[in-house]
Amino acid sequence: MQHGFRRLLQKNLLMITLPGVLILAGLLLLLGQVSRLEHFQTVKMEDSSFAKEYYLSGQRNVEIMLEGLIPAGFSYYEGEKEQGEYFYRIKDNVMELALLKKKTAAALRNKSGEEIYNVRIIKDDVTAGYILREYAEAMGIPYDELSGMGSLYVFDEIAYPLVRIRAIRISMIVLSVALGLLFLYVVLATAFPVLNRQAWCLKRYGKVGKYIRKLDREMNKKLKMHQGNVIVTENFLIVSYLTHIDVVRIDDIKYLSKHVEKRRRGMGRPVYVYRLTASNADDLYFEADFFDEGIINDVIYYMRGEPLLEYEELSEQERILEEEQMEDAFAEERSREAMLDAEKELYEQFDQDELL
């Protein structure tokens, strides 16, 4: 085994970061697909006279230059709140309408705004007809003479889904940065194990890099036991979990004990859980649970050089006593059920005699 502790760090690092990478990549892929939907796509429109073609094709979010816009004298309200203002321009004898936000309209009036807008093409023949009819009445000419001049398609800045498009873009940027940082962390923590957060448990002993190398040597040359996630070397006890690694220097342990308790795992039957406790008078307190008594006995044996015989005898006696108690309880339950069955049979016989 080469670089045993480093490999342990790398394995845990990959196991804990892989789900995060998959989730971030999946979300990024999903947002990428969403951003390709028409509602989130914006194309550049060179000529406003093709508004009908863009609308019918389904590509309605456009970036367009609208020069020479003039206030139409009408505002757009949502409820009682003014949200925007209508502008118009005449191009090729056609009146084109644009609905701009109040801020954009104010900038246009002050000649401080740009003439390139992100808008959504909507079909609003009612508004277009109303504005054209008002102009015909103001000019004192029949509406029929102007009815063919108005475009039915409005360049609507308010309807443009700016917030959703920005949210999608920002989310994709954030996910890309997070995925990149996570990938960078995996690369750096693999190349330089001292950067791995799970190795920081070694700070209590001194320099992390020094003890990583020491544990590598221990696992390579002084390994006594390795079962599952438990490793015992000449000088260290190492218990590896998915989210962290516990490392205990055996010489620091002054008190070592083993306890047993019964736990219910989900809806299944209770099982025995064996807890190993190591501590000293200073700041050391370590616990680890095992479901196999053989493993905990091996750990204690390789740490101490001898088993805890008195505990094993005591635990065996407790198990025998508990099994006897359980058997007595089962026998009592069976006896009670037999009595109930007998009473039921007696009552049924009595009912039959009454009928006869």
Structural class: alpha+beta
Percent of residues in beta strands? 25-35%
- Tell me the major beta sheet: 7 strands, mixed
Give the overall form: elongated
Q: How many strands appear in the DSSP assignment?
A: 14
Q: H/E order of the elements? A: HEHEEEEHEHEHHEEEEEEEHH
Termini separation = 87 Å
Figure out the total of helices: 8
Helical proportion, percent range: 40-55%
How does this structure look, described?
The chain has a seven-stranded mixed β-sheet. A four-stranded antiparallel β-sheet has the order 8-9-10-11, sandwiched between helices. A three-stranded antiparallel β-sheet has the order 12-13-14, with helices on one face. The protein is built from eight helices and 14 strands. α1 packs antiparallel against α5. Helices cover 46% and strands 27% of the residues. It has 356 residues and is α+β, with helices and mostly antiparallel strands. The protein is elongated, with a radius of gyration of 40 Å.
